[in-house]
Amino acid sequence: MFNLKAEFYLKIIFLFSLVALISAYFIEHVLGHQPCNLCLIERIPYGLSIILIIIIFVFKKSEKFIILLLILTSVFSLSISIYHYGIEQGFFQESAVCNVKNFTENIEKEDLLKQLNERIISCKDVTFRIFGLSLTSINILISLLFISILSKVFIIYEKNRY
């Protein structure tokens, strides 16, 4: 019971997510703007959205449940972005997440000394803007857009249930 209107909205979110990830990697690797740790975390919901939407289109089962997961993913994205924006604006102090270089490795003393000499990108420093907006503030707007679109898609599935 797949709805064409819902399918259109999901394709829009898929394309937005794909463009957002490609843009982030372009800005990082081609333009040379290094992301902070929160910027890297903000990419995760876009990747999850792409995966979840592919699951909807391939398996065509549990669409409503996956839509709920997409809404939760967007709420997570919004929360992280608001927190990051608060750090950029000085409303919040930087947390340990902003200063950790690598979460997974055991760090030896030589590596720690090397990391201290490297420049760590601060979560409060905005190194790239589009139309005067930081990527974090743009991410807030996109997350709000996703939440509203996905809520509409969820309502479409609710109406088709009966």
Total helical elements: 6
Radius of gyration using CA atoms only: 18 Å
Question: What is the C-level CATH assignment?
Answer: Mainly Alpha
Mean pLDDT: 83
Query: What coarse outline follows from CA principal-axis ratios?
Result: elongated
Strand segment tally: 2
Coarse structural class: mainly alpha
Report on this structure.
- The chain has 162 residues and is mainly alpha-helical.
- The chain has one domain: Up-down Bundle (Bromodomain-like), CATH 1.20.1550.
- The protein is built from six helices and two strands.
- A two-stranded antiparallel ribbon has the order 1-2.
- A hairpin with a 2-residue loop joins strand 1 and strand 2.
- Helix 1 packs antiparallel against helix 2, helix 2 (37-59) runs antiparallel to helix 3 (63-89) and helix 3 (63-89) runs antiparallel to helix 6.
- It is elongated, with a radius of gyration of 18 Å.
- The model has no long low-confidence stretch (mean pLDDT 83).
